[in-house]
User: What shape does this take?
Amino acid sequence: MKKIYLDYAATTPVDPEVLEAMKPYFSQKFGNASSLHEWGREASKALEDSREKIAELIKVEPGEICFTSGGTESNNIAIKGVAFANKEKGKHIITSSIEHHAVLNVCKWLESQGFEVTYLPVDKDGLVDPTDLEKAIRDDTILVSIMHANNEIGTIQDLRELSRITHEKGVYFHTDAVQSFGKIPINLEFVDLMSVSGHKIYGPKGAGFLYVREGVKITPLFHGGGHERGLRSSTENIPGIVGLAKAAEISFEKMEEESKREEKLRDELIKKVLEIPDSWLNGHAEKRLPNNANFGFDFIEGEALVMLLDEKGVAASTGSACSSHELKPSHVLTAVGLPPEKAHGSLRITIGRHTKQEDIEYTERAIKESVENLRKLS
Assistant: This one.
């Protein structure tokens, strides 16, 4: 039986070049970057070289890169850190209704701590209206956090316009770029904070970074030895950081060519799958990640479809892997206007570097067969 992985939005395999770059730092160059001896200096050099590499890729200063354990921690540091550091100015935060739970649950927790959060609506394609954002900003607003691209439906926000509006109002702007980083260009002109995770770009799990523009007032969540310029105390994960930097470098080198290739495969898949009666595409038809296709089907359960595809050797999902065990419908799909019964019939396919033409052709047939079989049963 063929085995085809089409859940690259959940995680990616570590690139062989990334693994090779990491290997020496597990056993040979194992020093603590804070130590003064040769082993420590060796680790410290790897740490700073990685910081400089990432800073150069996104055209910021090395000191503006804070290494973390991934997207969730980066989001927590950004949102809680800004909230607590700026609470004297105000306690109002703005986000969107389709954010990842790593943002939404942080905001919900902050509400329990006396902060007020405005959750902006989105249109049927998942886009935030810049006018809604402008109207929502108040004198006591201290932070706007809106993701660059949605992890479920792939819709890409107008990051420059949203951050420009926020910047002109004198408010910090944070974006969760976990899904978009390394896949599409990111305009950071008016962005103050950006979260990135390594395992979405063929790097290791447990490694990520937070871009923090110089001058942003932020309170650290961890207190210890003062690592990462005092923003994130903890002995640095040197193998993970080296792998993250290498993965970022490779992703940027391949970005233009790979995004075009994936987009072509994605569009073919969308065309074929939408031949199925009572099916539709979730998310924006054009403003979407090059590797993302999210479908809806009447008269079936998405979970049942995922399991049937798994039996045929195709790995897909219904939405975010972080909430795949929840039985309630996707908050993203209900936010774009789908009733619960339609939201339950979703399927997310995300393409990656190792996806081939024949994989797409096999998957098209597998989806059609599976949908037909499930509808017969129902």
Notes: The mean pLDDT is 96. The CA atoms of residues 55 and 62 lie 5 Å apart.
